[in-house]
């Protein structure tokens, strides 16, 4: 993984198949071989499976199986809702999990549902935006009213699809209006100490020593392999390099972001379109925008002067 494609370490709190004995919050039993568990073993011995599709709304929404959990909450506040109980939903649910950053913020909820349930969501929510992730077909639903993003990708279980729920900030809002960038201090960071950087950027800064990171809000074009991050490299105790990245999911979204950047900063001072490299002069900063094969625009800020 290169230094423009780092990701928060995910602490996965799983309601997995093949877990221990069934309880109110248990996972599926080994006997079921990934199915709903013992309830399928004896006809009439268990209540019918609940309909997981009925717990989704008419627009992209988080199902009620995640009740008590929400994007952005602290891990310490989620304990009473974990592990996530899935056995009541039969074969329609294979796994449900929550992902947290190293600093303990819940960033994503994920549930693997049957393809029959996915088909119902297509009818209810409409067709998702078609994308390709790691060579595989995938889809994304966006709800601008709630800033909820639902990513549909293949599951590790045959006959299921993985749905990942996260909040997003449109890349245009993240990059901001006008020439300035909201998450970059007006006073350039180059030459500053680690303490000065943390004072300027706040408590969300992660890391120490030679590498600092500020996780940025996910955008509509995030993938499991790329998410916006401001990265700061220090040498001999001073900032020597500042970069950030904005993912894209297709050639169309790549070109859309470039068009926005050219509107925001004006025409580049120099460029190499064949290499997707563009050099902009933005106030006291020079910013190079480049896109290679990592499905993200990378922005490299050089020292003023």
Strand content: 25-35%
Would you tell me the structural class of the helices and strands? alpha+beta
The low-pLDDT segments are 1-44
Count of helical segments? Answer: 4
Q: How far do the termini sit from each other?
A: 32 Å
Number of strands: 15
Give the helix level as a range of percent: 10-25%
Overall geometry: globular
Overall radius of gyration: 22 Å
Largest sheet: 8 strands, antiparallel
In oligomeric terms, what are we looking at?
single chain
Widest sheet, order of strands: 8-9-10-11-15-14-13-12
Give, in order, the helices and strands: EEEHEEEEHHEEEEHEEEE
Tell me what you see in this structure.
- The structure is a single chain.
- With 305 residues, the chain is an alpha+beta fold.
- It folds into two domains: 13-167, no CATH class; 171-302, no CATH class.
- Helices cover 13% and strands 31% of the residues.
- The chain has four helices and 15 strands.
- The protein has helices at 115-125, 171-175, 194-201, 251-265, and strands at residues 13-15, 93-100, 106-114, 129-133, 136-143, 148-154, 160-167, 206-208, 211-215, 229-235, 238-247, 270-272, 277-282, 285-290, 296-302.
- Strands 8-9-10-11-15-14-13-12 form an eight-stranded antiparallel β-sheet, covered by helices on one side. It has a seven-stranded antiparallel β-sheet with strand order 1-2-3-7-6-5-4.
- A hairpin with a 4-residue loop joins strand 12 (270-272) and strand 13.
- The chain is globular, with a radius of gyration of 22 Å.
- The protein starts with 12 loop residues before the first strand and ends with a strand.
- The model is unreliable at 1-44 (pLDDT under 50).
């Amino acid at each position: 993984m290169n230094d423009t494609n780092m990701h928060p370490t995910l602490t996965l709190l799983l309601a997995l198949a093949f877990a221990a004995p069934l309880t109110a919050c248990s996972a599926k039993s080994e006997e079921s071989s990934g199915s709903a568990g013992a309830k399928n073993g004896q006809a009439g011995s268990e209540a019918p499976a609940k309909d997981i599709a009925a717990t989704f709304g008419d627009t992209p929404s988080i199902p009620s199986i995640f009740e008590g959990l929400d994007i952005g909450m602290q891990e310490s506040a989620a304990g009473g809702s974990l592990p996530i109980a899935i056995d009541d939903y039969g074969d329609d649910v294979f796994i449900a999990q929550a992902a947290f950053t190293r600093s303990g913020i819940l960033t994503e909820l994920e549930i693997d549902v049957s393809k029959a349930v996915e088909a119902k969501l297509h009818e209810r929510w409409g067709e998702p935006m078609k994308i390709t992730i790691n060579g595989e077909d995938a889809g994304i639903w966006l709800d601008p009213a709630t800033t909820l993003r639902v990513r549909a990708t293949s599951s590790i279980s045959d006959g299921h699809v993985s749905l990942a729920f996260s909040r997003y900030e449109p890349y245009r809002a993240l990059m901001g209006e006008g020439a300035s960038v909201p998450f970059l201090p007006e006073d350039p960071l180059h030459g500053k100490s680690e303490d000065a950087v943390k004072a300027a950027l706040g408590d969300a800064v992660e890391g120490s020593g030679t590498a600092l990171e500020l996780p940025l809000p996910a955008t509509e074009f995030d993938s499991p392999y790329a998410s916006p991050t401001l990265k700061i490299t220090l040498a001999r105790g001073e900032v020597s390099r500042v970069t950030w990245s904005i993912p894209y999911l297709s050639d169309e979204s790549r070109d859309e972001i470039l068009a926005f950047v050219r509107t925001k900063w004006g025409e580049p001072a120099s460029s190499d379109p064949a290499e997707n490299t563009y050099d902009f002069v933005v106030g006291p900063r020079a910013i190079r925008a480049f896109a290679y094969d990592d499905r993200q625009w990378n922005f490299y800020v050089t020292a003023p002067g």
